[in-house]
Design brief:
With 296 residues, the protein is an alpha+beta fold. Helices cover 20% and strands 24% of the residues. Bound molecules: fe (ii) ion.
């Protein structure tokens, strides 16, 4: 099978040393029905994650980037919030407060919230420093905390669509989405780039991974025009259509260490997080805004 070359699209930039050592590429995706999942151990039991019908999962044939691929992932000349991904590490002024809150015993999101509450004074200082930092990388538009999320360890793909589940669903009943875009009813494929980006900060004890496809929704739309009638294509069915017609388009995987953050236009590209291989709870803080790291 021939290897599909990546196009120039959503690049990656970072001030971290040896950034390309933390980035890998694969040969595309498989439909979840052809995918051998990894077992999750949770609360004494274990289960295999379920997926929504249209979920596609990156293949596991990860390898380091070639010279051409590194070139291709170089950020575009004009860094905009919608055309690049940034990987960075929190400044010491924020980390020093975070280090004083112990999350090591946390098994659930409630435990994490309780840890913040128990350390009220530190949490307030953390908030203050974090806001200063976020202001320094944000343009004039306001940003806001979207959520503190937790994910189980050893999850190949972390995003899950709980809106399709009954109330009081169990952990085992969750259905994971696979690679997806975060578009909403307010967006069209050619407007997703106008909705800013997000910053996701890793507060957990272990590194996690951010996986993504380096194409904007406009690029995806243009590629699909060659394969299908796109009159009914929208932000909800675009992932399924793309992966059906282009299963060999490579996925990029970025390692996000403890206290590191990524900034990504998640409405404008297919992506997900992964905790595969981890053993402790994954904890993140996510803010929505218009973050731009070019001045750092
Ligand atoms: Fe997402």
């Amino acid at each position: 099978m021939s290897i599909t070359a990546i196009k120039k699209g959503i690049g990656i930039h970072s001030n971290l040393p040896n950034i390309f050592e933390n980035i890998q590429i694969n040969s595309g995706v498989v439909h979840h029905s052809e995918h051998r999942g990894s077992k999750i151990t949770y609360g004494g039991g274990s289960f295999l994650p379920l997926y929504i019908d249209e979920a596609y999962i990156p293949k596991r044939d990860w390898k380091m980037l070639s010279k051409n691929e590194k070139q291709c992932l170089h950020p575009q000349a004009k860094l905009k919030d919608h055309n690049n991904i940034y990987l960075g590490e929190l400044p010491e002024s924020v980390k020093k407060h975070l280090k004083r809150i112990d999350f090591s015993h946390c098994k659930t999101r409630e435990d994490v919230i309780e840890s913040f509450a128990k350390n009220q004074e530190v949490t307030e200082k953390l908030n203050e420093e974090l806001n200063k930092f976020l202001n320094s990388i944000s343009n004039s538009k306001p940003f806001h905390l979207n959520c503190i999320t937790t994910n189980l360890p050893n999850l190949e793909m972390v995003a899950c669509d709980i809106s399709r589940l009954p109330e009081n669903f169990t952990v085992e009943e969750r259905k994971y989405m696979g690679l997806h875009n975060d578009g909403t009813k307010f967006m069209k494929l050619h407007t997703t780039y106008k909705f800013g980006n997000r910053i996701c900060i890793n507060l957990g004890a272990e590194a996690r991974h951010f996986v993504y496809v380096n194409l904007s929704m406009i690029q995806v739309h243009n590629m699909l025009k060659k394969k299908m009638d796109t009159s009914k294509l929208n932000v909800y069915n675009v992932a399924e259509c793309f992966f059906k017609y282009y299963p060999n388009y490579p996925v990029i995987k970025i390692k996000q260490g403890r206290y590191q953050y990524y900034i990504a236009p998640t409405d404008n590209c297919f992506h997900d997080g992964s905790t595969l291989g981890n053993t402790s709870l994954d904890i993140n803080m996510v803010y929505f805004g218009n973050f731009n790291h070019q001045n750092h």
